[in-house]
Specification:
Fumarylacetoacetate hydrolase, domain 2; 5-stranded mixed beta sheet; 4 helices
Length: about 260
């Protein structure tokens, strides 16, 4: 059963309060589990509550395109989408302040740059650049095993709190799927794998985004960023840690968590 406008607001207010107090997110008592369409409505309302005045969208993230693997069973059946915010875009080498977050993590990802031609239904999109990137995520959800958990994750913008970008290239390398992605903590490799063993093709994220645009009141800005999905594993940071991601032949990206 679809949520009423009051229920959308009630769910969003609860998520916003949890985010502001660094508590685990959950729906208020008495609300039924979220369906997918309502989850996106809650996501929109949460962003209205939390984003600062004048905040602008820098792009979008797509989650759930990855193949299943031994360490990563496939739970997300249909990929998820959430906006990325311009004030949360960082350059590689950033020293992060974790005081406002529960737990900060880094995810190695291919980021695409989009050129946008035209507006509305007539808009055309092309890939005009590619960047090695970390998605900055926060552990805010207690479990992640059912469709209801997935929809709650949608409402919470899929745990995103930012993006960290390495040096941009004019095109995605042709051999990207055959090269190795890795993530390291303080100089020690945590996990590495062939990119093609994790993703069919990062460029498919553009098709996912275009399908979402048909259902959502989103506008893609020219030059938008598009995150295409986790390649290795989340690296949960402790104060003083330095994380380095190698995104195959695309390049490297790094970030650290400031000592407290």
């Amino acid at each position: 059963m679809a949520y009423s406008a009051a229920e959308i607001d009630r769910a969003a207010q609860a998520i916003a309060v949890a985010r502001n107090t660094r508590a685990e997110i959950a729906l208020p008592d008495g609300l039924p589990p979220l369906e997918r369409d309502d989850a996106y409505r809650v996501q929109t309302r949460v962003n209205e509550l939390l984003m600062p005045p004048g905040a602008t969208v820098a792009g979008f993230k797509v989650s759930g395109m990855q193949k299943a693997s031994g360490d990563r069973p496939k739970i997300i059946v249909k990929p998820l989408v959430a906006p990325l915010w311009a004030h949360r875009v960082h350059a590689s080498g950033v020293a992060l302040d974790g005081r406002q977050h529960r737990t900060l993590g880094l995810e190695t990802e291919v980021c695409l740059r989009l050129g946008v031609h035209g507006r509305g239904d007539a808009a055309r999109y092309e890939i005009v650049g590619a960047l090695p990137s970390f998605e900055l995520v926060e552990r805010r959800q207690g479990r992640f095993a059912t469709a209801a958990d997935v929809n709650l994750m949608i409402a919470d913008s899929i745990a995103n709190v930012g993006i960290i970008l390495g040096e941009e290239r004019a095109a995605l390398p042709g051999d990207i799927l055959d090269t190795i992605a890795s993530i390291s903590r303080n100089g020690e490799v945590v996990l590495e794998r062939r990119i093609g063993d994790r993703l069919e093709d990062p460029r498919q994220a553009l098709d996912v985004l275009k399908a979402a645009l048909a259902d959502m009141d989103w506008v893609v800005p020219d030059g938008a960023l598009l995150l295409t999905g986790l390649l290795t594993t989340e690296l949960w940071l402790e104060p003083g840690d330095v994380g380095v991601g190698v995104i195959g032949s695309l390049g490297t990206v790094s970030a650290s968590l400031q000592p407290q």
